[in-house]
Amino acid sequence: MLTQGERFVPLADVPGKATLYVLRDNLVVGRGLDLDILINGETLTTLQPGAYHATHVAPGELRFGAAARRGKGPLLSGIEPDQLTGNLLLTMNVAANRTYYVTVEEGLGSVLLEPLSYEEAWERLPELRKTGTL
Questions:
Q1: In the beta sheet, which residues pair with residue 46?
Q2: Residue 22 belongs to domain spanning
Q3: Are the beta carbons of 111 and 34 closer than 8 angstroms?
Q4: Which residues pair with 130 in a beta bridge?
Q5: Number of domains in the chain
Q6: Is the sign of the CA dihedral 75, 129, 17, 93 positive or negative?
Q7: Statement: the pTM of the whole predicted model exceeds 0.85
Q8: CB count, 10 Å around CB of 111?
Q9: Using CA atoms, how far apart are residues 77 and 81, in angstroms rounded to an integer?
Q10: 62-71 pLDDT tens trace
Q11: Other residues' Cβ atoms within 10 Å of the Cβ of residue 107
């Protein structure tokens, strides 16, 4: 079950690790669709619209993918719940002791993961809620 937690609180750095934020804006398109965000084939988190996830990762290459699942409420998406599984949407090389931001954007029938600048991320993060799993 997904929970939406507190508003944005920066994640403390961990020496030797990269800090990663994944953001999903609260847009009309994509409502009713939960997106599992995968890194190197493993599920990192599930994002609902209007949520972010923060974590620490080992330095190196990160291969991002996504899998769609039907969430609560009416579905306002052109993506079928099993359409995205296994797709490589973004590859990034991350270094220790640095912070990275990635945005998840949905169009009708597609999902795009893109790096964000510090300025863009910090403008959006206060409007989002932290996501976790129970």
A1: 36
A2: 2-133
A3: no
A4: 52
A5: 1
A6: positive
A7: no
A8: 23
A9: 10
A10: 999 887 776 6
A11: 13
